[in-house]
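Before our next group meeting I need something from you. Please put the record directly below this note.
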Amino acid sequence: MTKINHPLTVSAIVLAAGRGTRMRSQRAKVLHKIAGLPLVKHVIGALEGADVTDITVVVGPDMEVVADLVSPHPTVEQRTQSGTGNAVKAALGQVADSNGHVLVLFGADPLIQPDIICRMIRRREQKDNPAIVVLGYRMDPPDGYGRLITNAKDQLEAIIESKEADPETLQINLCNSGIMVIDRELMPGLISKIRNDNTKGEFYLTDIVAIARAEGHLCAYVEGDANDFIGVDSRADLADAESALQNRLRRNALENGATLVDPDSVHLSFDTVIGADVVIEPHVVIGPGVTLEAGALIRSFSHLEGCHVAGGAVVGPYARLRPGARIGDGAKIGNFVEIKNATFEPGAKASHLSYIGDARVGAGANIGAGTITCNYDGYNKSRTDIGDGAFIGSNSALIAPVTIGDGAIVGAGSTISKNVPDNALALTRAKAKVMDGYAITFRKEKSKQKKRPPRK
């Protein structure tokens, strides 16, 4: 991360006390995820990306899970949830007392990006010294959002909540994102003057703009992209935010040199790393913790999480890579193959219908169809080590802990529970028995036993 070196102290208050009743969930709203990461962690990540590390999170009563999630950043409990102004007031004692800025953001606004945070801070530091800078965006139609009221000098005069707005104000399409940066020295006095004489009986943080203007302070705004300010209050909002973030992640992957054959059908995670010339076919789901090195090919309908795929490797179609899977250069993981906590070294192959867990598959080894590593005995998990150039015949079971030596062959249909030396052949099939002509006898006997259909 590049150091930004803000000239003044920058603190942040993240409001995360909402229960999210419209989510109809037992979980706090900010714990719901998009792209595999809780909403509030997206916000904290954006702040850290803007080199803002003095972060305080406001939580509600009995929200220890949220507090644990945002640690080591401190939390402050908002005991009475009576509006955003009350929430910020609860956190003021935790914020650094210095000549600087205080950012206020919402924990359920996950699409905020570091660059817009930096733009807001830089605007506060300009010579006209605005007491407050608010982040706004254009929306048509703007129904349901607070409006930014500006004057002839394009300065911010006030923020009017939509429920408090008259018909003329509701025609304004410059909307309030709820995100602002405030002069730390002025902030306590401004917050103390907020009143709750409104239709909801709450202390609106947005009122501090009008309060600051009444005291003769300049206020300003920065305009951003509406797609970056989807606040999550419902399951529908959560789906909209997921869709917007997926589009952003896909666009970044394409701009960095990857090929997504059908981008809309590919699901990425917040931390997916995709190298140049990676090809991802349609209907691929990539969970958290995945790195795809340059030149890897991910075939359709594969599911990956917590894994590393080297360049030149081919995964899928219909493959599943679980946490701890490491696929080497030129290795192949075919259809209906599941890999868990296992390493495939360069050129190793499992082309179809296998489970390989807690194992090493050596360079150039071949795993036949239907092979499984029996890694769990009901109490403990054990490792299987398959040597370089080994050949495991179809429908084999390797009972861990077991080692298959370099160049060894395991005959098809074998159950192997003892180590196999290098270049040895191991097989455990029952001896075949062939009875000439028995098929004719079998059919005759069965024909006699077959009941004739009743007469009509």
In short: Residues 9-228 form a domain with the Spore Coat Polysaccharide Biosynthesis Protein SpsA; Chain A fold (CATH 3.90.550.10). The longest helix spans residues 235-255.
